[in-house]
Amino acid sequence: MVSEYKKAGVDLNKVKEIHDYIAKEISSTYRNVLLGAGHYSGVINFNGVKLALHTDGVGTKTLLALKSGVIESVGIDCVAMNVNDLVSIGAKPLALVDYLAMERPMEDVVRGVMSGLIKGAVESDVEIIGGETAIMRDVINGFDLSCTALGIDVNEIKDGHDVKPGDVVLGLKSNGIHSNGYSLIRKLINDGKLSFNDWKDEIMKPTRIYVKPILSVLNMIKAAAHITGGSFSKLNRVTRYRIELKMPEPQDVFKEIEKAGVPHEEMYRVFNMGIGMVVFTSPEYKDDVIRSIRKFVEVYELGKVSEGNGIIIQTYKNTILHL
Amino acid sequence: MVSEYKKAGVDLNKVKEIHDYIAKEISSTYRNVLLGAGHYSGVINFNGVKLALHTDGVGTKTLLALKSGVIESVGIDCVAMNVNDLVSIGAKPLALVDYLAMERPMEDVVRGVMSGLIKGAVESDVEIIGGETAIMRDVINGFDLSCTALGIDVNEIKDGHDVKPGDVVLGLKSNGIHSNGYSLIRKLINDGKLSFNDWKDEIMKPTRIYVKPILSVLNMIKAAAHITGGSFSKLNRVTRYRIELKMPEPQDVFKEIEKAGVPHEEMYRVFNMGIGMVVFTSPEYKDDVIRSIRKFVEVYELGKVSEGNGIIIQTYKNTILHL
Question: What is the CATH number of domain A32-152?
Fold first, then answer.
């Protein structure tokens, strides 16, 4: 069966093959690397100081930003996509650079993007220390935006190595769709199955930045997972043990997207379904972690880690999925 | 008069306006920044450790890479564009991440780019600790490649603050066109004024990596300037004093491009004209600096810094240009 996402031009298996090839190739350059490709961020050791670097873009959400005139959101998204991945491995975001490629100089895009980047930077307590703006008429349609963030203070790398059966899995509420799955959303819009006019505000909401809640519980959690491309199917990056989750009711926009023709299971492979960040903690810290995170964002107890393997999801419709 | 580069879709004045706007905006996020936007790299202070970050892409050279099948070069270019800028401010490159955006999964592109990135990384002694590969059919035509590099060991930031009249200006030979001016080159090719078939090998040569020669003279130079977009017209980033340079005979490919219809003066505003990196040193160190650099690459004594201001270039045709 060909997935809706593949029909929209994104073949997740093909992308995974490429990622695996790249991870293997670049590992030939490793000497001081503590965490390399395939993790939420790379970490390198410099004279005992652990430095984390992460790069990510906002995907094709830029096309909807142009269509709606809501540009600022993708600036925030771009910061979020990077700082959320940095805190996922236990690094404190320090600095950021952006790469903005445009088909032609577009002042509204530059202003909107910069405004969003700065809002995101303030929220994450990072400084934007540089960037590149490239005009590439024949390579870019509209604009493409990516960022790279530098993190430090990685006391203990949170790569999930000590996650074990019995650990608790918590979910931090998302702000909406965030920044993944937009090729599929655009296809639904273009096919007339989803009304951009009716759902524009929801679709253009920026990604939530989880820096403050995660840093507040860093010494009490074992791992965190930013829910982005591949969504819950990527939780086995954290642990190979079995993960069983009962998902809450997602925001209405996800139901509307599903109604537009996306299979129920695929929704949980492509979208965050209301949960933008997942944390793993041992039972004795659970209440403290929940209390601390709640000061910043709504948090759900989703489930637990158990013996065996696989990712088992009980959806909001009470369907059981094996991702 | 409309420049050839502007006709090719790149308005350097418009780009400069945007860069200035961005530099002003992002400076609002500065607290620990030692060197911000507008310099070759950003530098931030973390507990007394100076960390440098730089991001840059390879521009529209990717389209010619696809046309010729010479993909590896742009991988090397992308490393070079970043590490050369890092050493320009006196930072030792440590780690790198790449951002590869493609219109569809293209195995030959992934393999070629990775091979080039790894060659560049080995030459610059950096480790590739992560990256992002994005498939964006409706945003990207062909592929776009950018990287971000992290540098450390910035003992003294080489921002040119102590450059003064009497200082000597040296030029390190380029490997060819490197990675700037390709929108103009493609226009000349598309207009039938420049034969890509005849000049493919020269046009697709990778950017020279200057990490080893520059690091070898770091304690003897005051500043270094990577010659990229804007070319020699950007030397006033280093000093506002007058810079007088006598340029050597450039490689044949530059003469061929000029013959294809680019005004002589514009050649020195867009292309490196045979000099990929410029260093500033005081007269007493000149001979030692030249001796040390020569172990790695050909070096020319180009001229000197003097009282007054402006950038005065005596071209290989003995024309005097005020850039």
Answer: 3.30.1330.10
